Structures are given as structure tokens and as C-alpha cells.
Amino acid sequence: MASANEKITAGEYIRHHLQNLTYGRHPDGSWGFAHGAEEAQAMGFWAFHVDTIFWALLLGGAFFLIFGRVARQAEAGVPTRFQASVEAIVEFVDTSVRESFHGTSRFIAPLALTLFVWIFFMNFMDLIPVDWLPWVAVKAGVEYQKVVPTTDVNATMGMAITVFVLILFYSIRIKGVGGFIQELTGQPFQSNSLIGKILFFLPNLLLELVALLAKPISLGLRLFGNLYAGELIFILIALVFTAGSGLVATGLSSVFGEHIPAWFWVVATASVFLTLWLNMQGRLTTRRTLWLLLAEMLLVGGLAFLGGQLMHFMWAAFHLLVITLQAFIFMMLTIVYLSMAHEHH
Predict the structure, then answer these.
(1) Tell me: the pLDDT tens digits for 65-83?
(2) Active-site residue, selected from the candidate residues 96, 171, 204, 226
(3) Which of 13, 112, 242, 286 has the fewest CB atoms lying closer than 10 Å?
């Protein structure tokens, strides 16, 4: 991210936020981090997106610790609100598995719970203002930081391929190699004669392979596309904060020029949250809170900040439904695909 004194264009701002922290082998044979999209592309297939790996593992660990702690501390008495919310998620996933999975496996329900919560946690990172964590990373000496793992096609396709491997494993385990091959070559065109089976072998195989390979591709690209588009909209909304000129259009932010440092928005947003907290504590009336919020937005960021905050809030409210729905869809399709792998046709 550019420093406070460095001016960058809107295009450079967007490209920076969409660039992963990439580690790999440079063309000269040395290993290290890429310092731009060109260097990352030159590293080839075996480059590692360190930020994607870090945040995915961190959020996966958070899921394990949170749900594990609730499970250990669960009591038969009146549960806390947090315990009740965790139990509601577990019951929701368990009900989904019971209704959609027609086989017998103790592995499917834990897998479905892990996928749903883990993907939701990764998607939820998209609601954090786009400049906050990258700004902290730059201050720590990290040039790039993309904090939403599901906006990286490598992460979503990695999960999808893992599900695909499980589909193949259970298909062969339940139906046997012969049964699995029969499933690929015996439909949709069917015949009881040997000649008909030979004639329909290749067409059936091609059609079924397309349907089989479409499962991981659609599973991974659907999640990636929705979250990538959502992140891009948040970045475009952030650019609105720098629109206009003069104190009326951009408030106090106009003193920073074309690009406003992230810490300014951290302080500005913190003041808004402080006002809301004082209102919740009963120290500010609702009327005074509304006037104070309006004054803060206009003073700090002018019309651009006010409009940007409203757009950010409206899109975040809608996007909260999107990130939940995408986690649910990935989980449900996984359950359905694995259920089909357990069924005999």
C-alpha cells in the first residue's frame, strides 16, 4: 500500500488490493516474495499465496478452538447466548445432513460443519474495511495482504478438489471399481444387448465425465466469483471516500490529497463506533446520537465520506447474506454430491 505521501491512481489502488502476497522462485533461481503482479506471474504454478494460507489456517484454527471450547464447557443447564448460538449452528448442519444425505457415515456431518463455519469465517473477512489490515501489514513491512482467502481461486478450487477426491473415494468404496465404471458408461443411454452397450460406451463416458468434472469446477468457481465480486465492490466504495475536492466535498480528508491513509479512516470509524457505544450505554439520546453521527461524517469526510459510509453499510448488510448463502451452498452441494456417491444406480 502506498504511504501517506505517495500518490497512486485509482487503478493502482485496486490492483494493489487484489494482489496476493506471493512467495516463489524467481527467474534467476532465487526464492523470495514477489514485488508486483508481474513477478508473481513469472514465478509460475508453484508460487505460494502466503496471505491466503495464513488467513485460512488462522480462521480454521479459530473455528477449532471456539467450537471445541464450547463443546468441552457445554452444560445441561441454561446455556449462555454464545453456547446457544453455537449449538444452533450445529443443529442446523446436523438437520441438513439428515435431510440430504441418504447413506451411512459418521464423517459427513463433521465435514459439513467444518466446511460451513470455515467458509463463513473466511467470507466474513470481506466485511472488514479494505484498508485496515493491509495498512497494518504495510506498517509491519509486508507489502501485500489479501485477507479474504475465498477471493483466491486457489483456495476455493483446493477445497473443491478435496471434495472431488472424496466423491471418487466413496464412489469406488461403496460401488466398487466395476460399479463405478458401470455408472460412468451405463447412462444416460441404456441397452440390455452387448452391441448396444458397446455403442453407447463412449458417448455415455464422455457425458458422465463432463458431469463429474463439472462438480468441482462449479463448486470452486461459484464461491470464488461471488466473493471476488463482493470484494471488488467494497474496494470501489472505498475509492468513493476520496471523491470530490475541497472541505465541503471531502471534509478534513481533503488535507491528505488524492490518497487518504488508512489510519485516518480507522480513527474516523472508531469515532462513529464510540458514539454508537455511548448511545447503547444510555449516555446519549437517540436524537443527539443521530445529529452527532451526521456531524462526524460531514466533518471528517464531507459528502464523500457520508455517501461512502451509507453505501458501505448497505452493501455490507446485503453481502452478509451473500457470504452466509455461499457457505451454505458449498456445504449443501458437498452433502448432495457425497450422498450421490453412496447411492447405487
Answers:
(1) 999 998 888 776 677 778 8
(2) 226
(3) 286
* pTM for the predicted model, two decimal places: 0.82
Residue 283 falls in the annotated catalytic set? no
Q: Name the nearest CA neighbour of 208 among 113, 324, 345.
A: 345
Any idea where the domains of the chain sit in the sequence? 10-342
Residues 108, 97 contacting (CB under 8 angstroms): yes
- Gap between the Cα atoms of 244 and 238, Å rounded: 13
Rounded to whole angstroms, how far apart are CA atoms 185 and 262?
58
Q: Are the C-beta atoms of 206 and 188 separated by less than 8 Å?
A: no
Sheet containing 48-49, strands listed edge to edge, beginning at the edge strand earlier in sequence: 31-33, 22-25, 48-49
222 carries an active-site annotation: yes
215's CB contacts (< 8 A; 6+ apart) are 160, 163, 164, 167, 333, 337
Q: Which of 154, 222, 279, 339 is catalytic?
A: 222
- Please tell me which residue in 3, 85, 191, 218 is annotated as part of the active site: 218
CA 131 vs CA 36, 144, 231, 243: distances in Å: 18, 11, 12, 16
CB burial string 305-327: b at 16+ within 10 A, e below: bbbbbebbeebbeebeebbeebb
Model pLDDT for residues 243-293, shown as the tens digit of each residue? 443 444 444 555 555 566 667 667 777 887 888 888 877 888 888 888 887
32, β-bridge pairs:
24
State how far the Cα of 122 lies from the Cα of 151, in Å rounded to an integer: 9
Answer yes or no: are the C-beta atoms of 243 and 295 closer than 8 Å: no
Active site residue 193: no
Record the cell numbers describing residue 96, joined without a space.
441438513
As a whole number of angstroms, the distance between CA 151 and CA 168 comes to 26
